[in-house]
Structures are given as C-alpha cells and as structure tokens.
C-alpha cells in the first residue's frame, strides 16, 4: 500500500513494535477496519488475517456476540477500579473462567493483558512463599527463546536476546534452559531430546539450591522459538520436578489458551495441570485489553486472611478487572463452549497441516509444528536455514493480502477459531502464492 504525507509524518511520531519504523514506512500496513477473518487497509485493500491479529482475535474481528456484550455492559458500567470495589460482572467473569480451567485452577485475578498477568504470577509466587514460611524461595527458571512480555519481570523471564539487550542489566533471580528444538539434531530421537531438556530444569534447580527456587515458567507451545511443541512427557517430567522440589509450575497460555490447541487450554492438550496459568490475547478475541492470572484455589487461600494480620495480595492495576473487559471475556468463553470451537480447532488443525504439507514440494519445509489451529512451519532452502526466504516472504505475503507471523526462520499461522475448510483453503492458497513469489525474488 501507499501512504500519504499525513501518515508518513505521524509514523515518525510513534513507533512500531520490535521493528524499524523507517522500514515500516517502506512497507506500510495501516489498517482502517476489520471484520471476521479480514482487515482492510486505508486504501481499501483486503487482507486475510491468518494470525488473529497477533494470536488474539480468537473469534475473528468484530464478532457479533462480543460486540453485543460490550454494548450492553457499556450502558450499565464500564469502570470500577478494584482498589475500592469490584464490578459484579467481574465476579461473573471469575466464575466463568474458573469453570473452564482444569482441576482447581479457580483463583482468578483479571488484568489488562499478557505481561500484567505474568508479572502478577511472579509476584504472587514470591509473596506466596514469603507468607507460607519459605521466604528464601524467589528464583524462576524459564527458557531461552521464550517470550513472556515486555515489562521488566516478564522480560527477565523471557529468553529473546534482541528484545532484552537494550534494557540490560536484567533483574536478578532468573535462570534459563533451552527448549527441545535447540538440541534436537544432537539426539536420534525426539522423545529422548525432550526428556533431556525437561531434566535440565531439575539440574538448574539442584545447582541453584531448591530452597531458593520458586517457579518454573514455560509457554506450553513456544511461539518466539518457532512454534516449539514438546512431547506430553516433557510436561509430565516438569510437573514431577516441580512437585519434588516445591516449585510452582506456571504455564504462559497467553497464546495457547481458549480453544487454540484443541482444548480450552494447552494444559488439557498436554495432560498436565500447572499451579498457575496466565491468559491474555484471545481471551477477549482482541476486542478489549484483557488478561488473567489463574492460580490453584489452595494457593489463593493463602491470600485470604484478616486485615489485622495484613493478609492480601500486594498488587493491583487501575484497569484490572475492568467491567467491559469482563463482559467480553464471558462472551468469548460462552461462544467457544456453546459452539465446541476447541474440538473444531482440533479437527481443522489436522486439515490445516495437510494443506501446509503442500509446501513440501518446493523444498522449503524443514518441519511443521504445533497443535490445533496453532501451526508453525520451519523454513529451509537446499536443506539449510534460509532467513533470506523469510525476509522475502514478509513482503510477498503482505503484497498478496496475507497477514501472518514471520520470524524469518519460520512462519506461524493461527487463524480465528471460526474458520471453515474453505477459509483454510483460501489461507493456504495465499501462503503458497507468497512462498513461490518469495522464492522467485531469491532466484
Ligand atoms: C506467550 C506470550 N506471553 C506473554 C505475552 C505478553 O502479552 P502482552 O503483549 O499482552 O503484554 C505475549 C505477547 O506477545 C506472548 O506471546
């Protein structure tokens, strides 16, 4: 698309996340409206949104049930800060979200997005151990290549070099291990690689002294590492290690939650329940800022006590538990449950993978990973990683009217859960066209 003088001038006065605004001006994407699976730019060109905004528009853009819930709630109450009160609809949200989580993950603290939820989970974990007799437990172990958010604590738990370096030094008390994809070529078998990588958490905990370690934080499927998809056994080992050393297992389900992987949460997909689960993004279908920290009820109990003893969770945000966001969250969960969209994601995910296999004939696919409607393709050329291909793909996809996440060593697609097979056919057609156009640029 082309931009006018006003847009060019104003782009200089803001910034684009994690990329050069100058380059963005060369390859701009300025959106004026969105509906269902599509965006339209300010020149009226239509784009297929193959990534739900950024893993957020879980029901597509402007879903009627979401809009209706917002409209109704707006007319009644749109702000009630949790400092001196709580909206009744926020209590409904607490109940509704708790009703779809596994086991006793019922203690729900709503927030305005993913980073806030992760930040809260880490503060909750540290305070929990302080007030239950193990104040020396404060360290967190997470993974290189993982991403948990842009705030300082979430960033310290993240393992993405370039996103952290400008802000170093990091907070202390954060340790990292590598995810299985990093080591896979050194093992003859994927399962063994996963066992090794899961056991590294134990090695780090033991080396640090288990009495000082509070939490393990992982995305069940890691996006920034390239749709890293461990085995079920990997998570079973993590669970066992955390139980053994009294470490809280925290799942960052900000991308993987709400039906995306074929169950309401990836915890159910992998068959392992964490102690704390963090949500965001698709929980509101991207319509309003919403996230949530969800802990086991017995952990929440530690924060319920008398004012005289000063028992409370020493944390909060002005917009947390916002009534409008709560009403939207309830509508999104209802829509997913009523239409069995998680099951749909499982079935359509198989169809999507079959389609993506069509790219193999171009010799560009090293591996297709993911679960349900969260899929990533690791790219290669002549058997080797080829970042130039991904860089070219970024441009050809946009030219072809396709929005997806491109790394450039891999690309990911995560269309809204409302897609049908026809939509996936359209998505794949655009992907294939964009890949062949990118190959032509390189030749
Ligand atoms: C896995 C994961 N965790 C946390 C976050 C942070 O969420 P937010 O950008 O809403 O603060 C993101 C954002 O991309 C994410 O992908």
Descriptive notes:
The chain has about 450 residues and is α/β, with parallel strands linked by helices. The chain folds into 2 domains: about 5-60 and about 340-440, Alpha-Beta Complex (Aspartate Aminotransferase, domain 1), CATH 3.90.1150; about 65-340, Aspartate Aminotransferase, domain 2. The protein has helices at about 5-10, 20-25, 50-55, 65-75, 90-100, 115-130, 150-155, 160-165, 180-185, 190-210, 230-245, 265-270, 295-300, 325-340, 340-355, 385-400, 420-440; strands spanning about 30-35, 40, 45-50, 105-110, 140-145, 175, 215-220, 250, 275-280, 290-295, 365-370, 375-380, 400-405, 405, 410-415. The strands form 3 sheets. Strands 4-10-9-8-7-5-6 form a 7-stranded mixed beta sheet, sandwiched between helices. A 4-stranded mixed beta sheet has the order 1-2-3-13. A 4-stranded antiparallel beta sheet has the order 11-12-15-14. A hairpin with a 2-residue loop joins strand 11 and strand 12. Helix 4 (about 65-75) runs antiparallel to helix 14, helix 10 (about 190-210) packs parallel to helix 11 (about 230-245) and helix 16 (about 385-400) packs across helix 17 (about 420-440). The two termini are about 25 Å apart. The model has no long low-confidence stretch (mean pLDDT about 95). The structure holds pyridoxal-5'-phosphate (PLP).
């Amino acid at each position: 698309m082309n931009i006018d003088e006003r847009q060019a001038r104003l782009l200089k006065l803001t910034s684009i996340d994690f990329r050069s605004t100058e380059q963005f001006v060369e390859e701009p994407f300025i959106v004026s409206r969105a509906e269902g699976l599509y965006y339209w730019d300010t020149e009226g060109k239509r784009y297929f949104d193959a990534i739900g905004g950024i893993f957020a528009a879980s029901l597509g853009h402007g879903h009627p049930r979401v809009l209706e819930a917002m409209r109704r709630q707006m007319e009644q109450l749109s702000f009630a800060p949790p400092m001196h009160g709580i909206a009744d609809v926020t209590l409904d949200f607490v109940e509704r979200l708790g009703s779809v989580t596994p086991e006793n993950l019922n203690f729900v603290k709503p927030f305005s997005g993913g980073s806030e939820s992760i930040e809260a989970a880490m503060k909750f974990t540290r305070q929990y151990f302080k007030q239950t007799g193990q104040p020396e437990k404060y360290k967190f172990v997470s993974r290189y290549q993982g991403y948990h958010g842009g705030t300082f604590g979430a960033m310290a738990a993240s393992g993405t070099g370039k996103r952290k370096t400008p802000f170093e030094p990091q907070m202390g008390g954060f340790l990292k291990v590598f995810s299985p994809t990093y080591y896979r070529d050194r093992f003859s078998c994927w399962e063994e690689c996963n066992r090794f990588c899961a056991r590294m958490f134990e090695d780090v905990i033991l080396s640090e002294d288990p009495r000082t370690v509070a939490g393990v934080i992982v995305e069940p499927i890691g996006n920034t590492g390239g749709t890293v998809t461990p085995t079920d056994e990997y998570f079973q080992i993590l669970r066992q290690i955390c139980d053994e050393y009294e470490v809280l297992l925290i799942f960052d389900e900000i991308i993987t939650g709400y039906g995306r992987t074929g169950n309401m949460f990836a915890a159910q997909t992998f068959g392992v329940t964490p102690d704390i689960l963090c949500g965001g993004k698709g929980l509101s279908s991207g319509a309003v800022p919403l996230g949530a920290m969800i802990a086991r009820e017995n952990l929440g109990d530690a924060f319920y006590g008398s004012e005289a003893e000063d028992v409370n969770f020493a944390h909060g945000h002005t917009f947390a538990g916002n009534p409008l966001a709560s009403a939207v969250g309830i509508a999104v969960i209802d829509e997913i449950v009523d239409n069995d969209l998680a099951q749909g994601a499982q079935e359509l995910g198989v169809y999507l993978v079959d389609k993506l296999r069509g790219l193999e004939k171009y010799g560009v696919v090293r591996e297709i990973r993911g679960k349900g409607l969260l899929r990533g393709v690791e790219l290669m050329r002549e058997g080797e990683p080829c970042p130039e291909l991904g860089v070219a793909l970024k441009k050809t996809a946009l030219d072809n009217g396709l929005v997806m996440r491109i790394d450039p060593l891999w690309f990911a697609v995560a269309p809204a859960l409302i897609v049908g097979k026809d939509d996936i056919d359209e998505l794949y057609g655009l992907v294939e066209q964009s890949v062949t156009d990118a190959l032509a640029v390189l030749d």
